Amino acid sequence: MVDLSVTLPGMELDNPVIPASGCFGYGREFADLYDINILGSFVFKGTTKEPRFGNPTPRIAETPSGMLNAVGLQNPGIDVVVKQLAYLNRYFRKKVIANISGFSIDEFVYCAEKLNDVEQVGIIEVNISCPNVHGGGIAFGTDAKSAAQVTKAVKAVAKKPVFIKLSPNVTDITEIAKACEDAGADGLSLINTLLGMRIDLKKRKPLLANKTGGLSGPAVFPVAVRMVYQVYEAVKIPIMGMGGVSSAKDVLEMMMAGASAVQIGAAGLKNPYIFKEIIQSLPETAEKYGIKRLKDIIGAGH
Ligand SMILES: Cc1cc2nc3c(=O)[nH]c(=O)nc-3n(C[C@H](O)[C@H](O)[C@H](O)COP(=O)(O)O)c2cc1C
Which one, 90, 96, 149, 263, has the greatest CB density within 10 A? Predict the structure, then answer.
């Protein structure tokens, strides 16, 4: 018997597998396929103050071993999301992670405050790393001072633990990580997508209407492992690791790099059953490497 349980601030998880924001809707979409209570938890789609249609299409492009997306934070707005969360426990009984985004510090604060009274939200994940919107998102995540300002402002109002989601599109991710820790973050999530682009040979134009998009999927896995490893050495707060994870072995590797829990995004868009398959194969895979308790391997690669 392998003990799969892990701990995050304010949350005890049966296992470390968590579908990532933007790749699992609000859970309901997957609950028709299987009982999603098997998951450690899940992160729902990034939410802003106002409803957003997102970017024009095409906003998805294939890449070798991954994908580009430029969805642009399509969501119904925080008020609708909070209302819908009242029905969440019909199909998911555990705590969820809320992902919020904003175009100003006030917007982040507004969204965080709205989530304070939603009992089922265990952690607020603050996305300061969306590469697909203009004038917000990544602008906060690529500058240590701005990252710290958002963190401080959200922490001042949030009654839930706050994780800041970091961008890989920076020279030194540890600098931003440390700024967030110093500003009071309870944890860090990384990585968001890597800025990329493809060009349509026939049209001689960028394939995505937004021109650029975020690269994710197995192609980014080694980049994500490297960044989780670096951030683990730089801070003391827990890390949710993600980027290219698509197997039980990847989950173990991400944890050895320093992740306390592991999120999975693009892989679930290709195979919606992958979260369940990975959870089911984790005990056998862990046993193969002599692991009895997953908690024991967090940061073991250092
Ligand atoms: C279609 C799509 C939509 C996404 N939307 C969000 C989002 O709303 N908020 C966010 O923080 N990250 C978003 N992400 C980033 C993922 O949560 C994750 O950080 C990233 O894709 C890396 O993990 P992966 O390689 O397993 O996909 C999105 C990713 C994809 C592919």
Answer: 263
